[in-house]
Predict the structure.
Amino acid sequence: MQFLVQVPNLFKLGFRYRPYLNFRDPEFKRMMGFFAPVVIGLSGARFNVFVSTFLVSLLAEKSLTWLNNAYRIMNLPLGLFGVAVGTVALSTLSRFVVEKNPAAIRDTLFDSMRMVLFLTIPTSP
């Protein structure tokens, strides 16, 4: 929605976008090399959810509801605290990267991680 709201004004300003995708571009190949481990890691977690859901579906009537509620409760601290701190820290980290200030990047990253751990460990089951 955020993108679609901006499109009419971009067209009024004369901006035109033409998609271009070159699979032989070395930067595209490099990006796909970074993308592959992420896909493998995320698919492992989704596969775990799939297997758990399949096994629980064979149990009593409300078992699947209990599993879904358990996943929601398990992910609540990360969703509340981790995403909030990450969103705030990202702009600061981006500024320090542009300024090429590795000490500030490290300090901000450690402070953010410390805050997330401080907020999520007490809420963990």
